[in-house]
């Protein structure tokens, strides 16, 4: 790490707190190892081609390494080949890149994480009743994995629980709030809702508060607001990934690659359940971001 | 146009103006009737309140857009300006810890200031409104992220803040009517805007500018000043929207806002205001905004699959406007 | 087409080309036509006369397929026809020059003329032929106009000529001209009349609408008069005195013309223009205007009178020159500055620069005076505005169902009156009226003359730009004449037409003739 | 406006048309110069190609939008129509396994059909273009999701497909110039569109409609038919954009597309086409689209923080258009 490496991170998003936490982790590693890191991502997780333009511009910049969280890994293949041809090491992060070009992938198992949310939901509502999902995106990898992970786990393991509605609010809090209220009003006997990312979870909690409902809300990711809601009990709890860890590990792996180290195929950044009872435990508090 | 050629009222039956106006609601009423029949959950007080609450932010933005559109302009920055104003309120209340009224004032003044800038760029530099407000949209979006440090600002230290939108003054007086303040604010803004448009010089110039700007200029009117005033007024209204959304989310979300301009402009146009300027009403815009939220709410209540919700929404927006055109043609 | 008809045209008892009977047409709140009638013979110039709002344009729009009639019969060559679209009227050999110019401003003159009938080769537009054909039409009209010039850069007069060229290009059997000369100057009018005579000889039937009474005598064979949407009568033009036609139109005999009230030559100066310049349009124009004086501006099309007026008013920038108001040098950078200094300007192009067509009559009249009706908190005194507007409607006899009617729904002449009313209400000390009586009927015209005289008598200083010499001669205390951007001379009020024409065509700068002040 | 009153070129100094047009590039050239000086990586062949590649989709969409905007209309559906056409190509090629030319044809015909629908709703039902195409935008967005089953459709079984945009015919002939086909297609579409606008009846009526629709109608032209034709042509062009983006991503991404209309319209307006219709050029639109992508690329190359990128982009868009206005005023 004596060299002043230039590492470009192309993520799936930029403005959301999750990605800002990834950025924070990357910046932390950058400071620690004395490298230069840039971080960019499109406005929404549907803009696959915008991400391609960002990747192309990053390649033109001729960085030493690239970290890449693919919105659609197939679409990126030609550019990744171009990077490989230029001997720029690629580290995949957040979700896998369907290709053997990346040297390693720093990721969360979203299907398993959402299945854990399903288990917790079942436990909290007494293994029976109606539940719903408010997710961020119908077509992105994380959106698909988390919805599938939750819905499939319920279908497999909890025959008395019915998922009555899965709707998508684009991760926009206000839209997710309105969706939640509609779901609650359409299903007065609903027991719980799973909000599949930070914006969705906050929207769900918000809708619950506005209607004065007492359903069980399970969230995903953290952030100051979500932490506050878990603390106050509006949210029963949430699944946290380790975004700071993802960012940190991505940069670290990139430096490792540049220094000629061999990297494991997968670097699992892990996930955890947190609720009011455990969120102040040091190991949990460490993976929560504000 | 064909409507000039259409022979009208030979029959002597003249439909009264009030009834005429009532019919403008027809698209909205049809939607409400259909959804009420389709789902028992639709016509619940709570759901009606939820619809009104859902209309409040878009309704206020749409009123701002109405003013600008009547002048023949367009304002693409309403959404990100709303966010910017929310962030400013956050900075004042949370970062500086100043009292609530200052935060409210700050948000509204931020909106006014931004409107002044857009208006000046349009009136003085003659940059087309589309470009000027597109530029402002991006600038404000970036500034919101910069100022907030790309993270939400929470209003936890300002206890009264959530009351702005979520409290219910009416509910406190008449418990059976827990109409949230946000909805009251929407109607207050609508009333004020309708008053300004209908009764004041600013409103008159708004219509005149959209009708024939050059004729207004040649009448010795300070066209630039009035145009800037319209954008500034619209900006202040976006400031109110910023307070509403921040209060509802108990936070200023710096990344939100882009895309909201389309819903706002859609409400305006569904409400019968012409994009070429010179005509339009606040009441129409309110109806347009309500049509959008009733549609969204109703389709969700019916648990229509989301991809189909989009298809149905698109179809109904076209049909609602077509019905309104037919109505005007036959009257 | 036209050739076959010319034989019939020779016989005076030729079968009518067009017969319209029992035509009704209503608009919301307005009965525009009621049992209207009209007949047109081949080879005839038939004048259609009536006050503003009498229904002339509406009747002709029905004949040309723009409006659908509510009742009545339209016959062409004795056969009843249903004309439901402009295209159909064209196919039947009917073409029309609309009163409100209907040109596509972003297209060239030639493109406008042949819109819908572009020559093509292999599906590709043959632009060369298009321009050649247009140039040929212009040549036949003795019109010097580049076919490739964009219409929006043309003055209204030139635009009017393009409209005429377009109508001619259809080679129709029936040609309707709705106030074709309202924007034209004597030279072009003479040219137009030559064209009309040629068409007439070919057997084309021409409907001619105009408010210029002298033209009626000059070219029309018969005159049909309408009043309030109804048919009044048809008379031969040659043997009917103008006064008779006028009294048919207005339903009474008009009182005598207003006289020019002499103004005191030692009245204080109201306006002085010194060495006004801009490019080749305004070349060193200087003149002065006293209180109570009416200064007429004469000149041929393109002489630069409009440009001069706009420059004084601050509507266009100027390159040099000073403007003095009541003995004080003033800086005028915008129309607002001018209005603040007490100068009002009525534009020659009401549609583009005068009327806010989407606003109602009341607000158009009040548009320049809104600040007067603005109370605390910017609230408008609607009752005061209504009163002022209704006063103006009465004074100028504006035909409108109410002061809340949308201005665009008024007839052309009544729109013009609304714009005049706007400036009267503003109460400026110096008024510049550019073609103020364009499209205004005889009765109203003499009312406006009286009004201008009265305003002058009150001490207002007035400039009247007009292409109608009789108007200039009747109104002016002095007459300024322009040619190619120069002020070629200022003549006393009673000067002869010949003297004015001499200055109007004087191409050389003639310093000694200028009475600058 | 003052320029209507300003008689053109009185002074003997007539600046040649070609030079005048060259100056229109000034904003673009200024950007290129600044970025080249600021970063050695900007003026690399690869980066230039990346910029052109990034322009291709938005450029083609913007050309479609140009046609509609010249008529005085607006097309908000260009983005989601592009996606819809990509999905149709995916269905034809991947689900049905038909040969490549059929997929290409299908995408373009889908675009034409959608344009026919929008045009008919606008011309026959008199629904304002904003509403009609807003409705179509939502309908097409929903249909893309429905047809694709909300998942991307990959073209792995159609090997030639990625060549449409990513291959390089020129590069095969002249290896030093590996210009991707997508860029060629953009220029081909631009040439054809310019030809249609300048030399054919369709183009003539496009300008005429935007200039004075009522006058065109009074001239006996079948206004409805030509208007529908313009929207249908624009739709076909969106079909081409659909193929380009699908080929670039080797997949039809059904959720993509919304928001793209704003970039397309922005390119049109930056290129000097007036939203009120009657005037506009394809060349201007190309320049507008290039300005947008050069800006985005250059700021990324310079590693400007993303929130500041937005601020700078907004500012420069306003300045670029203002510079163009100044240039036209002084000439
Ligand atoms: N589209 C319309 N809607 C409502 N009223 C109309 C419309 N067109 C014309 N009118 C009314 O019909 C009457 C006749 O108008 P028309 O234009 O035929 O008059 P005109 O004889 O041509 O007058 P002018 O000499 O001023 O041109 C007027 O009162 C006018 O206000
Ligand atoms: N062929 C032409 N090409 C370009 N400009 C022209 C042409 N003819 C006239 N003009 C412009 O028109 C201006 C004259 O304006 P305008 O015709 O309004 O003058 P006017 O004296 O008021 O005449 P009008 O009787 O038409 O009102 C001139 O300054 C000139 O620049
Ligand atoms: Mg008329
Ligand atoms: Mg003139």
TrEMBL record, chains B, D:
This is Ribose ABC transporter permease. PANTHER family: ABC TRANSPORTER PERMEASE PROTEIN YPHD-RELATED-RELATED (PTHR32196), RIBOSE IMPORT PERMEASE PROTEIN RBSC (PTHR32196:SF72). It is found in: Cell membrane. Keywords: Cell membrane, Membrane, Transmembrane, Transmembrane helix. It is a multi-pass membrane protein. GO terms for molecular function: transmembrane transporter activity. It comes from the Bacteria. GO terms for cellular component: plasma membrane. The chain crosses the membrane at residues 22-42, 48-69, 76-96, 102-123, 130-149, 169-197, 228-249, 282-302, 308-326. Pfam families: BPD_transp_2. InterPro entries: ABC_transp_permease.
């Amino acid at each position: 790490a004596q060299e002043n490496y230039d590492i470009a991170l192309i993520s799936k998003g930029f403005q959301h707190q999750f990605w800002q936490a990834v950025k924070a982790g990357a910046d932390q590693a950058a400071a620690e190892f004395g490298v230069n890191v840039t971080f960019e991502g499109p406005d929404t997780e549907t803009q696959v081609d915008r991400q391609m333009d960002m990747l192309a511009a990053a390649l033109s910049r001729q960085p030493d390494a690239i970290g890449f969280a693919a919105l659609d890994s197939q679409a990126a293949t030609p550019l990744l080949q171009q990077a490989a041809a230029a001997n720029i090491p690629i580290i995949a992060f957040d979700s896998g890149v369907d290709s053997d070009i990346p040297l390693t992938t720093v990721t969360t198992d979203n299907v398993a994480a959402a299945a854990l949310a399903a288990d917790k939901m079942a436990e909290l509502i007494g293994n029976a009743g109606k539940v719903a999902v408010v997710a961020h995106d119908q077509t992105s990898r994380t959106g698909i994995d988390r919805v599938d992970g939750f819905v499939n786990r319920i279908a497999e393991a909890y025959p008395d629980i019915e998922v009555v509605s899965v709707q998508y609010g684009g991760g926009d809090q206000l839209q997710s709030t309105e969706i939640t209220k509609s779901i609650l009003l359409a299903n007065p006997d609903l027991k719980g809702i799973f909000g599949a990312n930070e914006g969705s979870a906050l929207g769900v909690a918000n809708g619950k508060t506005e209607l004065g409902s007492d359903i069980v809300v399970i969230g995903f990711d953290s952030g100051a607001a979500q932490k506050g809601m878990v603390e106050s009990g509006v949210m029963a709890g949430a699944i946290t990934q380790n975004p700071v860890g993802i960012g940190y590990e991505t940069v670290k792996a990139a430096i490792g690659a540049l220094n000629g180290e061999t990297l494991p195929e997968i670097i699992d950044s892990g996930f955890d359940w947190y609720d009011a009872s455990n969120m102040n435990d040091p190991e949990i508090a460490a993976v929560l971001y504000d | 146009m064909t409507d000039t050629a259409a022979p009208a009222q030979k029959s002597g039956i003249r439909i009264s103006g009030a009834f005429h106006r009532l019919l403008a609601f027809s698209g909205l009423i049809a939607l409400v009737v259909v959804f009420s029949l389709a789902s028992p959950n639709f016509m619940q007080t709570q759901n009606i309140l939820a619809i009104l609450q859902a209309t409040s932010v878009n309704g206020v933005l749409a009123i701002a857009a109405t003013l600008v559109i009547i002048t023949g302009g367009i304002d693409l920055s309403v959404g990100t300006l709303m966010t910017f104003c929310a962030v400013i309120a956050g900075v004042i209340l949370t970062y500086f810890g100043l009292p609530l009224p200052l935060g409210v004032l700050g948000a509204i003044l931020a909106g006014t200031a931004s409107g002044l800038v857009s208006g000046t760029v349009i009136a003085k530099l003659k940059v087309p409104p589309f470009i000027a407000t597109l530029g402002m949209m991006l600038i404000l979006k970036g500034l919101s992220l910069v100022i907030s440090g790309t993270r939400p600002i929470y209003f936890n230290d300002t206890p009264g803040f959530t009351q702005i939108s979520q409290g219910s003054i009416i509910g406190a007086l008449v418990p059976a009517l827990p109409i949230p303040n946000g909805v009251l604010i929407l109607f207050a803004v609508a009333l004020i805007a309708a008053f300004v448009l209908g009764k004041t010089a600013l409103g008159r110039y708004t219509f005149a500018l959209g009708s024939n700007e050059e004729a207004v200029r040649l009448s010795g009117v300070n066209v630039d000043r009035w145009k800037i005033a319209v954008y500034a007024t619209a900006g202040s209204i976006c400031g109110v929207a910023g307070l509403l959304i921040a209060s509802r989310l108990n936070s200023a979300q710096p990344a939100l806002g882009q895309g909201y301009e389309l819903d706002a402009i859609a409400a305006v146009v569904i409400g019968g205001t012409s994009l070429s300027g010179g005509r339009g009403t606040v009441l129409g815009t309110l109806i347009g905004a309500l049509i959008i939220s009733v549609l969204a709410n109703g389709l969700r209540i019916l648990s229509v699959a989301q991809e189909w919700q989009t298809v149905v929404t698109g179809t109904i927006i076209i049909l609602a406007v077509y019905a309104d055109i037919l109505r005007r043609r036959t009257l | 087409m036209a050739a076959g008809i010319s034989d019939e045209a020779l016989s005076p008892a030729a079968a009518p080309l067009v017969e319209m009977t029992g035509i009704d047409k209503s608009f919301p709140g307005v009965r525009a036509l009621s049992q209207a009638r009209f007949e047109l013979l081949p080879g005839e110039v038939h004048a259609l006369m009536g006050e503003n709002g009498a229904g002339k344009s509406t009747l002709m729009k029905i004949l040309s397929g723009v409006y659908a009639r509510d009742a009545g019969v339209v016959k062409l060559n004795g056969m009843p026809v249903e004309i439901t679209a402009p295209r159909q009227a064209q196919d039947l050999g009917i073409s029309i020059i609309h009163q409100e110019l209907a040109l596509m401003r972003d297209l060239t003159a030639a493109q406008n003329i042949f819109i819908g009938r572009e020559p093509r080769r292999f599906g590709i537009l043959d632009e060369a032929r298009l321009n050649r054909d247009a140039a040929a039409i212009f040549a036949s009209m003795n019109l010097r106009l580049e076919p490739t010039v964009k219409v929006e850069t043309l003055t209204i007069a030139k635009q009017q000529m393009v409209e005429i060229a377009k109508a001619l290009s259809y080679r129709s059997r029936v040609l309707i001209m709705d106030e074709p000369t309202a924007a034209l100057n004597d030279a072009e009018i003479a040219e137009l009349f030559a064209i009309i005579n040629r068409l007439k000889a070919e057997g084309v039937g021409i409907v001619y609408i105009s408010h210029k009474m002298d033209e009626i005598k000059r070219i029309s064979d018969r005159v049909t008069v309408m009043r309030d949407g109804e048919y009044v009568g048809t008379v031969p033009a040659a043997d009917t005195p103008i006064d008779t036609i006028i009294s048919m139109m207005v339903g009474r005999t008009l009182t005598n013309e207003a006289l020019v009230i002499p103004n005191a030559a030692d009245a204080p100066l109201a306006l002085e223009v010194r060495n006004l310049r801009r490019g080749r349009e305004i070349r060193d124009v200087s003149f002065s205007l006293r209180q109570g004086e009416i200064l007429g501006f004469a000149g041929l099309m393109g002489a630069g009178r409009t440009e001069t007026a706009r420059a004084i008013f601050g509507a266009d920038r100027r390159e040099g020159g000073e403007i003095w108001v009541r003995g004080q040098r003033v800086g005028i950078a915008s129309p607002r500055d001018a209005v603040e200094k007490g100068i009002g300007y009525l534009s020659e192009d009401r549609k583009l620069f005068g009327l806010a067509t989407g606003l109602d009559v009341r607000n158009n009249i009040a548009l320049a005076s809104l600040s007067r009706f603005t109370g605390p908190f910017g609230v408008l005194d609607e009752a005061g505005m209504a009163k002022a507007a209704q006063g103006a409607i009465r004074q100028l006899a504006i035909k409108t169902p109410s002061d809340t009617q949308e201005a665009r729904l008024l007839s052309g002449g009544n729109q013009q009156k609304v714009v005049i009313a706007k400036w009267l209400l503003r109460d400026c000390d110096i008024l510049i009226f550019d073609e103020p009586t364009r499209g205004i009927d005889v009765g109203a015209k003499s009312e406006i003359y009286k009004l201008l005289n009265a305003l002058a008598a009150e001490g207002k200083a007035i400039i009247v730009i007009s292409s109608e010499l009789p108007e200039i001669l009747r109104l002016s205390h002095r007459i300024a004449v322009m040619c190619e951007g120069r002020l070629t001379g200022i003549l006393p009020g009673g000067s002869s037409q010949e003297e004015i024409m001499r200055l109007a065509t004087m191409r050389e700068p003639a310093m000694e003739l200028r009475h600058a002040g």
